């Protein structure tokens, strides 16, 4: 009984909604997916390039994409908007131009909006990024996981599970370490669970971080 399933895909249509909204003919579907990937990669690269060097923190929770015939609407859900806007004036206009050039679509306009998230440390992507930053700075993995759990306790989450896999602390043999606080009912479909999987490159190899956050039960 070792089969695993992505908690987000498992709950689509009940407690989870899609991050991309658009329709396409079967033959154009793969092109649409690649376009989404290009948009997300371009935004993340721009934020990494232009954020404050001292923070080293993107703070993007997720990127929502809606496509119509003549418009692509992109919404960036971000925990710390000043990371994107503080570096220069007209940051969003420049980002919009960069993404438009990358897509090479003449017939469709691109519109990018930024939405501020009230409690950023309740988002698994931002939390995974925080842990990755700690691991890169050679902080002990147990200390990083405990600190991340302390940060989520400030939000209204009911449970959290964090897992780190790889050559932890530079040991010869790769292993998996995990910690859980509260309840995380992965088999209950009506339980709203946020999940993310994040890769971090350290000087002693690649580590994988997985985070499950139990938000609420419907």
From TrEMBL:
Q: What is its main location?
A: plastid
Q: Where is the Small ribosomal subunit protein uS3 C-terminal domain?
A: 131-213
CDD domains membership: KH-II_30S_S3 (cd02412)
Q: What HAMAP family does the annotation carry?
A: Ribosomal_uS3_B
**What protein family does this chain belong to?**
Belongs to the universal ribosomal protein uS3 family.
Give the record's subunit note: Part of the 30S ribosomal subunit.
How is this protein named in the record?
Small ribosomal subunit protein uS3c
Q: Which organism was this protein described from? A: Elodea canadensis
């Amino acid at each position: 009984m070792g089969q695993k399933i992505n908690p987000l895909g498992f709950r689509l249509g009940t407690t989870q909604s899609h991050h991309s909204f658009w329709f396409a003919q079967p033959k154009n579907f793969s092109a649409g997916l690649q376009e989404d990937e290009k948009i997300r990669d371009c935004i993340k690269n721009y934020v990494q390039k232009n954020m404050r060097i001292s923070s080293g923190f993107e703070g993007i929770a997720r990127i929502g994409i809606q496509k119509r015939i003549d418009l692509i609407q992109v919404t960036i859900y971000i925990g710390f908007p000043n990371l994107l806007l503080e570096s220069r004036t007209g940051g969003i206009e420049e980002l919009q131009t960069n993404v438009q050039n990358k897509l090479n679509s003449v017939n469709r306009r691109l519109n990018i909006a930024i939405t501020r998230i009230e409690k950023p440390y309740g988002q698994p992507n931002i939390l995974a990024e925080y842990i990755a930053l700690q691991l890169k700075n050679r902080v002990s993995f147990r200390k990083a996981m405990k600190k991340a759990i302390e940060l989520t306790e400030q939000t209204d989450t009911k449970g959290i599970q964090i897992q780190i896999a790889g050559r932890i602390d530079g040991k010869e043999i790769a292993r998996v370490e995990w910690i859980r606080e509260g309840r995380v009912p992965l088999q209950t479909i009506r339980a709203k669970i946020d999940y993310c999987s994040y890769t971090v490159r350290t000087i002693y190899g690649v580590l994988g971080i997985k985070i499950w956050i139990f938000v609420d039960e419907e």
